[in-house]
């Protein structure tokens, strides 16, 4: 039931603080200051390589996880979309962890990729939202998301719950690899515990995002830029916009702009910049300024400090709370979801049932 919401998508966007809290409950022990996974029958410290495979939005969650696993746990990660992975005859050393991420747990290409990895002697992990699904049944290590049924075709709450589980897994892996002290883990637990409140804070800017939707709705093309874990969030923002508003949108690593796409920039192409304050902020902002210098119209998404430092001359800003890097992608998901939603509503498209798309892609 949609309740008071006009669309399932909006309802599901608003459910995120609750379902992320629900999901984290199975992975975080706040009183002990520890992150805990379900019983595992293998030693995480022996994992030498992680392979992550998924499709669409779930793939972008995996891409965020690659940054985390490498940065925090210092474990090398291979990442691919399932439709490529399953046919490119990937080389896998036995005993690696292969991780499959899927809301439905039934996506045909991801399931085929899982079976390939099983044949190749991998330990199979699955981050899935449907506990009775094929992927859930076939996994050695089942890491459920507790997002509840997702009805809107565009994935929203399942995605943020995937990020929550992957943040917990990154923390566990980092501890197993000796890359994390007990104090650091305790600190991460505190940040994870605050994630639902941060999501609520991000939702509180909904009214402002709604007001700026008419600035984006007439565009034919929109670019999204980000660096580090915000690069996959730029890809996710672009995917959300194109699938429900039918506006052509591309996500780019901010530093790649000058290698081609900047040729597209004129005052008709809005550029959405995701730039949390932190070590990469200055770099992203300088890419943003290159776009501004060519007449590009910027929407800057950042925290208060970032907005104060870099809003000069931008078309619009969206504020999000300042949070730990393990929480930031969840928090940045909210404005890109809301922006896509309000632009689609402004254009009058069918938000919950976009043309040509199915909720579960069980054929390849
Ligand atoms: C985009 C979207 C799709 C799915 C993709 C994978 O909003 O929903 O890109 O993420 O079809 O589906 P699952 O996660 O069920 O494997």
Question: Notable features of this structure?
Answer:
binds fructose -6-phosphate, 5-stranded parallel sheet, 364 residues, globular, alpha/beta
Quick structural summary:
Homodimer. The protein is of the alpha/beta class and 364 residues long.
Describe the structure.
- One of its GO terms (biological process) is fructose 6-phosphate metabolic process.
- With 364 residues, the chain is of the alpha/beta class.
- It is built from 13 helices and twelve strands.
- It has helices spanning 8-14, 16-25, 56-73, 82-85, 108-119, 134-138, 157-176, 182-203, 206-216, 230-245, 281-293, 304-310, 328-347, and strands spanning 28-29, 34-35, 50-54, 77-81, 97-102, 123-128, 141-144, 221-226, 248-253, 270-274, 297-302, 316-319.
- The chain has a five-stranded parallel β-sheet with strand order 4-3-5-6-7, with helices on both faces. A five-stranded parallel β-sheet has the order 9-8-10-11-12, with helices on both faces.
- Strand 6 (123-128), helix 6 and strand 7 (141-144) form a beta-alpha-beta unit.
- Helix 9 (206-216) packs across helix 13.
- The longest helix has 22 residues, at 182-203.
- The radius of gyration is 20 Å and the shape is globular.
- It starts with 7 loop residues before the first helix and ends in a 17-residue tail after the last helix.
- The model has no long low-confidence stretch (mean pLDDT 96).
């Amino acid at each position: 039931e949609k309740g008071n919401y006009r669309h399932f998508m909006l309802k599901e966007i608003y459910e995120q603080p609750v379902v992320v809290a629900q999901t984290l409950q199975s992975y975080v022990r706040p009183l002990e200051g520890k992150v805990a996974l379900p019983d595992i029958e293998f030693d995480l410290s022996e994992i030498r390589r992680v392979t992550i495979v998924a499709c669409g939005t779930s793939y972008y969650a995996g891409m965020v996880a690659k940054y985390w696993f490498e940065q925090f746990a210092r474990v090398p990660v291979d990442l691919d979309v399932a439709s490529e992975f399953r046919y490119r005859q990937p080389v896998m050393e036995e005993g690696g962890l292969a991780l499959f991420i899927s809301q439905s747990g039934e996506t045909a290409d991801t399931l085929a990729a899982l079976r390939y990895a099983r044949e190749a002697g991998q330990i199979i992990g699955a981050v899935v939202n449907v506990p009775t699904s094929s992927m859930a049944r076939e996994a050695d290590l089942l890491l459920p998301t507790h997002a509840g049924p997702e009805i809107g075709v565009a994935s929203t709450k399942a995605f943020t719950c995937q990020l929550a589980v992957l943040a917990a897994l990154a923390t566990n892996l980092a501890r197993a690899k000796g890359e994390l002290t007990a104090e650091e883990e305790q600190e991460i637990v505190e940040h994870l515990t605050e994630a639902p409140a941060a999501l609520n804070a991000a939702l509180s800017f909904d009214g402002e995002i709604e007001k700026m939707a008419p600035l984006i709705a007439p565009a034919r093309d929109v670019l999204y830029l980000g660096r580090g874990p915000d690069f996959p969030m730029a890809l996710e923002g672009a995917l959300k916009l194109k699938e429900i508003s039918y506006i052509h949108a591309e996500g780019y690593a901010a530093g790649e702009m000058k290698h081609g796409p900047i040729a597209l920039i004129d005052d008709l192409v809005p550029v959405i910049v995701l730039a949390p304050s932190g070590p990469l902020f200055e770099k992203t902002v300088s890419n943003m300024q290159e776009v501004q210098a060519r007449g590009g119209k910027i929407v800057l998404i950042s925290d208060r400090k970032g907005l104060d430092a870099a809003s000069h001359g931008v078309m619009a800003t969206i504020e999000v709370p300042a949070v730990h890097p393990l929480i930031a992608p969840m928090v940045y998901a909210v404005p890109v979801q809301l922006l896509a939603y309000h632009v689609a509503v402004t254009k009058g498209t069918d938000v919950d049932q976009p043309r040509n798309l199915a909720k579960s892609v069980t054929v390849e």
